[in-house]
Design goal:
alpha+beta, 2 domains, 5-stranded mixed beta sheet, 14 strands
Amino acid sequence: MLHPSKTIELFPRDNDHCKRLKDPIETHLFHLEAFLPFSEAVKLDPGNANVRPFSEHKKPFRDMLDTVEKDPGSFHLKNRGITYLCEKFEYDNAKHILRLTVPNIPPSAPKSKLERDLEPLFRREEVPQDDENDEPKFGIADGGHTFEVIRQTVARANELMEQEGWKEPSVRVHFMAGDAAELNLEQVVEALNTSSQVQQYTLDEYQNKFDELKEALEKGGFDTNLVGFRENEEKEWDVREVVQRMACFLKDRWKNTQPASMYRSKGKALDLYTNEATRAEFKKLLDVVRDVITFPEYIQSEFSQGVSVKGKRFGGLRAVKTLKKTFIRPGTDYPTNHEMDLAASLPLAAAFRELLELKGDRYFWRVPPKEVFAKCADDLYKALASKSRTAKSVNSLGSDTEYWTQASNIVLRTKDEMLASRDSK
């Protein structure tokens, strides 16, 4: 769906306060660093990119307010600033105007202070929604607390100006322009806000929300000692990765759309798993969970060493890196001479959810997935190779719903052919 755009005009105090930066890797991502006085930064549309609301009760928030009052000239040095996502930007050196283009999305009704204070207590109980048709992400990706300090400071600027020696503070803003979905900027937002996320999944572990998953993994022959269920555990697997892969196999949830959002955000997958309203969807997968979470490694191994794609230049694909020696990821039995990016392997692996059928309250494989892969590996490889040639970046494969759909159609067609052949005998 196309969204109308709007332009925001900002006025840095000096041309030397506004500089473009070239991304060292991504040719479709553009950067601009700017020092903006608070009275200009407050014009930014906060947007919808930030993953959590600000809290005035946190010590860093109070410390920022204290700096604004007592040492405003040091604010831009002590504060890491704001990361802001936009469609594009341009700077007019002659007129000292920085123009930003952002989606023109009507703001939601403002929340009262009481609503903001209560939001952390209730937001995880809401049923997460599928977001393939979400509004485009833009605005403050990191720095929500900083922006609220700016807003409050500007609101009382006249009062502060009466203080002897007080000068308006400035803030550093890092602007990033590009297609948010194409460049997986949602993952950037999640990474910038990792500290809160990590604490939450650690809390989930303390609340025993992963006990059923641990039991199912052990029953399936997967060593749970390889999985980090809490922050700062240096393990071969991370529980968020496990849940992300499971989320892509929720067959009922992805009937009318593809689970590309689960690739883009492990946090959203984790929210689905830990939410009481949607946890039952994951329980259906517990009998096949080991197959589900290791299938990307199986596909990687088969493309690397299997007979199904002999003669193909697997290592020549953009999403693939050739390894110096054969590697087997702990927890799997699948040797590989290549590392295949998850953006390429997860859409292929998730396509095999088409083979799941429900028996009671648990899924089982209607047709063995490895047998189906042997039949359709060549078609899946062709889809991967074609998309790899045309994709703007490796990461964009994981957001390409057409790629997910192609893979699902290939697997579904192969399953139907195998069942029809079986029934005719």
